Amino acid sequence: MKTEPGPGSAPIVEPVSTPYVRIEGVSKNYGSVLAVNDVSLDIKKGEIFCLLGASGCGKTTLLRMLAGFETPTSGRLWIDGVDVTSLPPYERPVNMMFQSYALFPHLSVESNVAFGLQQDRLPSAEIRERVAAMLQMVELTGYEKRKPHQLSGGQRQRVALARALVKRPKLLLLDEPLGALDRKLRERTQFELVNIQERLGVTFVIVTHDQEEAMTLATRIGVMNAGEILQVGEPTQVYEYPNSRYVADFIGSVNLFEGRLIEDEPGHVRIACEDFENVVYVDHGISAAPDAKVTVALRPEKILLSRQRPADLDNARPGENRVSGVVEEIAYLGEVSRYRIRLSSGRLINVSQPNLYRHADRIAWEERVWMAWDSSAPVVLAQ
Amino acid sequence: MNKRLSPFVLTMLVLGFAFLYVPILMMVIYSFNASRLVTVWDSVHSPTLKWYAELFENSDILDAARLSFRIAAVNATGATILGTLAAFCLVRFGKFRGRALFIALTTAPMVLPEVITGLSMLLLFVALEQVIGWPAGRGALTITIAHMTFCMAYVTVVVQARLSTFDRSLEEAALDLGARPMKVFFLITLPIIAPSVVSGWLLAFILSWDDLVITSFVSGPGSTTLPQLIFSKVRLGVSPDINALATLLVLTVTLVVVGVGLSLQRRERRLSLEAQAAGEPL
């Protein structure tokens, strides 16, 4: 490899820390309604970033601001070092895949995909070549002349993806990309989407309300509520270490218990909960004032169910992290069974157990059972 | 499929259609009558095409037809452009100040008596001529302008209905793919709403083609439209060639309306299928 020598010819090494997409203090209000409230976010190149939240949490507004359909009331947006805050959508290096796909009904598949390239006035030979390559990638070769209404839902989704990717955008925005597909197709498409992203290296920002979709697709997730980003992290981080009651409750299911911090050491904490006779022992420290009111979050699959009282934990005092109750409801789902168990305090706890054995002597309704969990299982959340 | 019409319903149906179409049918039949007297059927020489032949030698009628066609076509085009713009304002600009007034003002000509429209247009043209010297006299130009004012309202209503169900994300997608707003309109919006725009154009054409009242107010010497000519001829006594002329008019309008209606219906059905396919709410 030969490089031109000369002043300033040193290779430009992009510092890894430089974010590719930077959202800086962005707010958007419609009249008195605050849709997005002072959001700051850095997205790295090649990431699949998922904005996850319930409907009306501002995630779509944020996406539309990245696309250029909405202008932030305050704050700035950068893409690859360029301030795009006031650029119109047709001048941004960004493409979007719409929730409804928004395929042009009067144009064929081929023309739909070629539309963006035609706007850039590329030579028609190159357009044909790139459209063909893109259609091949989404496995739609042979469908060039079809109109959108002659395609199935999954095919339309792939046309929309091809149309959004063919311009090689720096950033691809996807609004509920799998929302309109049925379950089997979704699962397949999820992996296809990730494969395509890995091959092209395009940075993806996905908006979804479906946590399962976010967990499978994302390299990082940003959980949004009421216009704010509550937590940003990798799927495992967000699931295992939620930083607030909302996040813990929104992602997966969780049992939340009110409690009081009674022992606070750097290596462990003990929490007294009204629902349990014994205290909850957690093997990692938290930062909270002693005697503070806290919430203990316990995932259903982290609770072990048994008929006999399980042995005490090695590192805890007898009876800690153990509680008994009566089975009230059972839902057999195939791979797991979900139980709702009534504690003596009257509180119901959700527990899920994998169905490991086919002919197991399964726990039945009205049985008295013991629940136990490891000292690493609970997450303590400040209130 | 064993649903049979009750005798009562059947009778009403026949009577209803008879009420609507027997007069027209009579006119068509009498257009082939050889007798000079409109109400007397000359069974010896009939049927004959001699009135039709006479029609095409009558330069007055041909001129009037040509003028009517020109006015109708220009009016329809102008009214369609203005009406489509008005429809866009109503649908796209949200709740702007004075929107209700704007709607009322746009659609009022539809319900305003034609006599009022005609008279007010006449007053306007006379006043304008006195003040700025334009339009000089009354003729084809003033008729066209007057027709556009009331035809525009119909176009607005037709296009507005289509636009209000138009999926904006299609336009956003086009913007997102790099098309500027004007290009988006001509490449995406217009082709999709085209059926309603064409409907509006045809409606404006037909309304102008057979308008008599407003035309009478704003026309001048030397600019006689076909309806005016027929009306003036009938006042002097109905001659059989009018039957022939009217039959031709009915035939033309029927052919155009049926033909365009069918093709629009097919296209609209296809487009709505496509729109549904593209996820557009209807």
Provide a descriptive summary of the structure in words.
The complex is a heterodimer of chains A (383) and B (282). Chain A contains eight helices and 20 strands. Chain A is of the alpha+beta class and 383 residues long. Chain A has a six-stranded mixed beta sheet, sandwiched between helices. Chain A has a five-stranded antiparallel beta sheet with strand order 13-12-11-14-20. Chain A starts with 20 loop residues before the first strand and ends with a strand. By secondary structure, chain B is mostly helical. Chain B has helices at 7-30, 50-55, 59-92, 99-111, 114-132, 140-163, 168-176, 181-209, 213-218, 226-235, 240-277. In chain B, α3 runs parallel beside α6 and α7 (168-176) crosses α8. Chain B is globular. The A-B interface holds A 67-69, 88-91, 94-96, 98-106, 115-116, 119-120, 147-151, 156, 163-164, 167, 180 and B 167, 169-170, 172-180, 183, 187-188, 191-192, 270-271, 273-280.
